[in-house]
Design goal:
four-stranded antiparallel sheet, 128 residues, mainly beta, globular, single chain, seven-stranded mixed sheet, 49% strand
């Protein structure tokens, strides 16, 4: 069982940066693949970025954020981060942290149904 709490959302201007954090509690955080999704009202949840549990910490990104967003994890702190640079108005959404596993061979893991644990979300608003 993993509990997730996101933080770091807010209102920024286009071109600004923002760093989201996700604090995890529970056992064996390092064995879970972690991801960020986002969702606007009335729309389906959209994959943003994911990072694997293996030692190499593989990452994968949605094309829409590639080169602008960076996902990372600190297993010693039970945390995963999303550094968002060069933000655009279309990045405005509620951002969710998700955990899948433990372990498993599913990679890349971009389908929300592959993640069993979710945080409550944090709002990111980018004004143009």
């Amino acid at each position: 069982q993993v509990q997730l709490v996101e933080s770091g959302g807010g209102l920024v201007q286009a071109g600004d940066s923002l760093r989201l954090s996700c604090a995890a509690s529970g056992r064996a955080f390092s064995s879970y693949r972690m991801s960020w999704f986002r969702q606007a009202p009335g729309k389906e949840r959209e994959f943003v970025a994911a990072i694997g549990w293996s030692a190499s910490k593989p990452t994968t990104y949605a094309d829409s954020v590639k080169g602008r967003f960076t996902i990372s994890r600190d297993n010693a702190k039970n945390a995963v981060y999303l550094q968002m640079n060069s933000l655009k108005a279309e990045d405005t959404d509620v951002y969710y942290c998700a955990a899948g596993g433990p372990y498993g061979s599913v990679w890349p893991s971009t389908d929300p149904y592959e993640y069993a644990y979710w945080g409550q979300g944090t709002q990111v608003t980018v004004s143009s």
